[in-house]
Design brief:
Layout lengths: L4 E2 L4 H6 L4 E2 L3 E5 L6 H14 L3 E6 L6 H8 L3 H5 L2 E4 L4 H9 L1 H8 L1 E7 L3 H12 L3 H25 L3 E5 L1 E3 L4 H5 L6 E3 L3 H6 L2 E8 L2 E8 L6 E8 L2 E7 L1
Length: 243
């Protein structure tokens, strides 16, 4: 079955993903800092905005850069920005309000893409405060709320057939002394674990090893596991070679 896809904003990434990001699902792009996550979502957002589509861009980390948009699209970047609605929650309560109003926003704006850059950022901070205070009830409440937010995204993507892209951090697991001595590399763990993995029907992990960047398609409902090496330039993302 042919599924609706949107461009990634990169010819090479489109080829890798057989046309781009799939509609009707949540795609999670996870990786450590400086691995390229925000560049991936910028490219997709700019690509659709150039076609006149409206984008909801939820930026929890303050990473949205007008200068980066200008590098990607050129001097007409102001026209592009008019099609991108930027929301900047600065704490978990503000993020909750954003998601409470998201469905109405989508209907009002005829949105073609939703981006959440840093889906787990404010959740992790709120969870950390609750854990430090040893407030078990609040921990449960925070987990229930972020699960509700992911469910909202899933329902919007399915019912409105809107592609949704979220970014997330990864962290290295702990190694025993014996594993460390053997040179075993720690496994990368996604913040939020199974909660975000469950709702994300496509998962792309980004790695940056000494400037050598790699994207790994870990999960997809219609594509096999695969990898691509890439580099980031002012104009976008380009492959360095196929794996």
């Amino acid at each position: 079955m042919v599924r609706n896809r949107i461009s990634t904003g990169s010819y090479d990434l489109n080829k890798w993903l057989y046309g781009g990001y799939e509609g009707g699902i949540i795609t999670m792009i996870a990786g450590p800092p400086a691995s390229g996550k925000t560049n991936f979502v910028f490219l997709a957002a700019c690509s659709l905005a150039k076609k006149g589509k409206k984008i909801v861009f939820i930026d929890t980390e303050g990473g949205f850069s007008t200068d980066r948009v200008r590098q990607i699209v050129g001097e007409n970047y102001r026209d592009i920005l008019e099609n991108i609605l930027i929301l900047n929650p600065t704490n978990f309560d503000e993020q909750k309000k954003v998601f409470d109003n998201l469905l109405e926003q989508v209907k009002k704006e005829s949105v073609g893409l939703i981006v959440v850059d840093g889906m787990a950022m404010l959740y992790r901070l709120e969870l950390g405060d609750a854990a430090q205070a040893k407030d078990d009830e609040k921990v449960k409440k925070v987990n229930r709320e972020v699960a509700k937010q992911m469910r909202v995204l899933s329902e919007i993507s399915r019912k409105q057939n809107i592609p949704i892209i979220i970014t997330n951090q990864v962290y290295a697991g702990f190694l025993s002394e014996e594993e460390w001595r053997k040179g075993v590399k720690p496994e990368a763990n996604i913040v939020g674990g199974d909660l975000f993995k469950y709702w994300s029907k496509a998962i792309i992990e980004l790695k940056n090893d000494g400037g050598k960047r790699k994207a790994i398609l870990l999960k997809h409902r219609s594509l096999p596991v695969s990898e691509i090496s890439f580099e980031i330039r002012n104009e976008g993302i380009f492959r360095r070679g196929w794996i």
